[in-house]
Write a structure and sequence with these properties.
By secondary structure, the protein is mainly alpha-helical. The protein has a domain of 114 residues. Helix content is 75%, strand content 3%. It contains 5 helices and 2 strands, in the order αααααββ. A hairpin with a 5-residue loop joins strand 1 and strand 2. Helix 1 packs across helix 2. The radius of gyration is 44 Å and the shape is rod-shaped. Keywords: Membrane, Transmembrane, Transmembrane helix.
Amino acid sequence: MLNPYVTGGVALLIMALVAGLLYERGNAIEAIAAQTHLQGELNTALDVNRHNEETIGRLRATDAIADKTTAENSAALAKILQAVIDTNTDVSELAAKNEDVRKYLDGLVPGGLLRVLNRPRRRRPARVRSRNHPGSAAGSHSAGLQARHHYRRHRRPADGYARLQGRVRGPAGRHSKVSG
């Protein structure tokens, strides 16, 4: 007969081996699941990378077309500007040499229009912004000035004509005669 301690020790040893094998089997299953998950993420990243490379290729092709178009437009603009410069130079030289040409060019444009065409360009006034609201002029004194300026510039001619006749705008938008 076998000693019960030896039998218990052998049973305990077998149970420890089975527990160790089950633990390692669980780790192996977990590792396979993690590998499958990581492989899926890798495939997704590779698909995204391939799509991004295709997009970069399309953008480079578009950029090349834009560069080519810009170069063509610049060359055409340079030709046009050179033609304008040559024409202006020829006209100036001809006007300096020939009195009839000078008289024709001086009389071609009426004086009033010539003053308008030859005056220097005015700069647009800078937009005034409020301290409280950096994106707008609302709530500041300058907003009222801008509103009055806008009204003066964009009022209808009929308003000025009504004022000349002594009529003003009533509250309902109708004209009424000023008494007095």
